[in-house]
From TrEMBL:
Keywords: Coiled coil. This is 50S ribosome-binding GTPase family protein. It comes from Helicobacter pylori Hp H-1. Residues 95-122 form a coiled coil. SUPFAM superfamilies: P-loop containing nucleoside triphosphate hydrolases.
Amino acid sequence: MKNIYLGVEKSIKDLQNIFKNTDDRDEKLKQFNQEALEVFQQLESKSLKELESLKNNEEWENFTIAFYGETNAGKSTLIECLRLFFKEQSKVVQQERFKRLYSNYQNNYQNDERKRQAILNELHSLQDGAIIGDGRSDFTLKTQSYPFQYNHQNFILLDVPGIEGSEQKVIDQISNATQKAHAIFYVTKTPNPPQKGEEGKRGTIEKIQKQLDSQTEVWTIFNKPINSPRALKDELVNESEKGSLKILNKEMKNILGKHYMGYKAVSAQAAFYGLSQALIPETDFDKKKQKFLKDFKAEELLYQSHFKPLAEFIAEELLKNSRAKIIQSNCNKALKVVEELQNTIKTTIEKWIDPMIKARQEYKEEVDDNLDRFTDKFISDLENSALDEIDQFYWRNNGRAY
C-alpha cells in the first residue's frame, strides 16, 4: 500500500510540475498556472486522503467478512447465530457467566429487590441475543468486530450499522468497515432488488454502488423473517421469492459486475431458537424458542432455516484461499482509488484545462506535449506500484499466499 500511495503522490506532483515549470512572465498565464495547480492540489488531497484511510483500515492478517445492509434486516441476528455455532470465545465466556449468575439469582436475593433487579439487568445483557436489535432504526451505531478461530483458521465478522438509519451518524463506521472487509454479505429481509433513490435522496442501489464498488467478493443474504414454526414446514424460499431473487441477482450484477457472486437464503430468527441456550425464562426470546421447539428439534431448526448450509459455506468455501483473497481485495481497493483519480484527471483536463489552453495558443504546444507524456506514463507507473506491493507481500509470507 505504501508503494501505491507514493506512486499516486509522485504522479500528481509530476502533473503539477507541468504548470510550475512554464514561463509565467505573462500575468494571464501566471493566473492560469495558479488555477490549474489549485485544481490538481485538491485532487492530490482527496486521493491521498482516501489511500491514507485505506492504509489505516487495511487488514492483512485475518480474513474479514462484513455484514452490510438495510436497517432491521437481521445482520446482528445472523452474527449472533454464527457466534453460537462456531463457539466464538467471547460468546462462550458470556454464556458461562450467565449460567453462574442465573444460578446465583435463583438461590439468593429473592427478598432483596434492589440486588435482584441489578442481577436481572446483568442477565439481560449477558443472555444470547443481547446484540440483536430492538426494532429501533439506529440500534447498531458502531461497527462491532467478532474474532473467530475455526478449523485452524482465524477470521473476523463485522456487524455494520444499517444503511437505512440516520446515516450521517454512522457513515464513517460503514466506510471503515467496508475498507477493512475482504468479503461482504449484503443482508436484506426481502427478496426484492434494492431500490433507487428519489428526489435527490440516495437509495439503496446508489449506496451499494458507492460503498461496495471496490469489493472483490459480494454476496446477498436473503434473511427471511419467520415468526411461526408452521412457516418452516414448507420450502424456505417459495417460487415467487425465487423469481424476485433472480431479478435481485441481475440488478446486483449490473452494479458490481464480476465481483457479485450470488445469493444465499436463510432464516436467522428460526436458527437462533435452535442455537440459543442462555436465555432468561419467560422472556420474549425464551417463549418464542419454546414455541418452535414444540414442532422441531434444535438440530432440525438449523437445517429447516438453511443456517447449517450457510455456516458450512462460510467455513469451507468462503475461507478457502483466504490469504490470496486478502491480497487481492486490499490491492483492488487501492487500484480503484487510482482508477477514479485517473478518470477525474482526464475529465478535469478535457473540461477545464483544455479550453483554457486553447485560449492561449502560444502555450498550447508545450502543455499538450507534457500532458500526453504524463497520461501515457500515469497508469503503468501506478500498476507497477501495485504489482510491487503484491510481490513484496508474497515474499514476506514465504509464498504462503499461493
